[in-house]
Amino acid sequence: MILDTNALSAAADHDPAVITVLSEAEQLAIPVIVLGEYRYGIAQSRYKNRYTNWLDAFIPDCMVLNINDETTHRYAAINLELKQMGKPIPTNDLWISALCRQYALPILSNDRHFDVVPGNRRIEW
C-alpha cells in the first residue's frame, strides 16, 4: 500500500484508524513526492524534532518509491486521461497516481480526487 501525505501525517499523530490499516498492510510504500511534502510540513512545524525522529524511525519499514522512466510514461498517460475527462488533479498527486499504477498498489488517502484516476484503488480511514 502506498501512503499519501495525509496518511503519513495521521500515522505520525498515531491516529488509531490509520494505525489499524497500516498494521494490516503487507507492504508499505512512500513515494519520494510524499516524503518531500511531509518534510516540508515538518520544516514548518513547532514539533520539528518529534516528527523528524518519528519519520527517521518509520522509513526503514517502508519502500521508498522513486520516479523513473517508466513512471514518466504512466504520469503522461494519466495526465492525458484526466485532461480528456475534464478532471485534473494536483501535479504531485499525478506523480503519486503514476506510482500507484506502476506498482499496482492501492493508496491510503483521504483525498477523493484519487478516485477519478482510472485504475486507482483508494483506501480511506
Layout: helices, strands, pairs:
Blueprint: E1 2-3, H1 5-12, H2 16-24, E2 29-31, H3 32-44, H4 48-58, E3 63-65, H5 69-85, H6 91-103, E4 107-108, E5 122-123
Parallel strand pairs: 1-4, 2-3, 4-5
How would you explain this protein's 3D organization?
The protein is mainly alpha-helical. The protein has a single domain (2-123), classed as Rossmann fold (3-Layer(aba) Sandwich). It has 6 helices and 5 strands. It has helices at 5-12, 16-24, 32-44, 48-58, 69-85, 91-103, and strands spanning 2-3, 29-31, 63-65, 107-108, 122-123. Strands 1-4-5 form a 3-stranded parallel β-sheet. α3 packs antiparallel against α4 (48-58). The longest helix has 17 residues, at 69-85. The radius of gyration is 14 Å and the shape is globular. The mean pLDDT is 97.
Work out the strand percent.
Answer: 5-15%
Which CATH first-tier class would you pick?
Answer: Alpha Beta
| CATH topology category name | Rossmann fold
Shape: globular
Spatial strand order of the main sheet: 1-4-5
CATH architecture: 3-Layer(aba) Sandwich
Output the CATH homologous superfamily: 5'-nuclease
| Distance between the amino and carboxyl termini | 13 Å
Order of helical and strand elements: EHHEHHEHHEE
- Outline the low-pLDDT stretches: none
Helix content: 55-70%
Structural class: mainly alpha
Q: How many helices does DSSP assign?
A: 6
Number of strands: 5
* Main sheet properties: 3 strands, parallel
Offer a few descriptive terms.
6 helices; mainly alpha; two-stranded parallel sheet; 125 residues; Rossmann fold
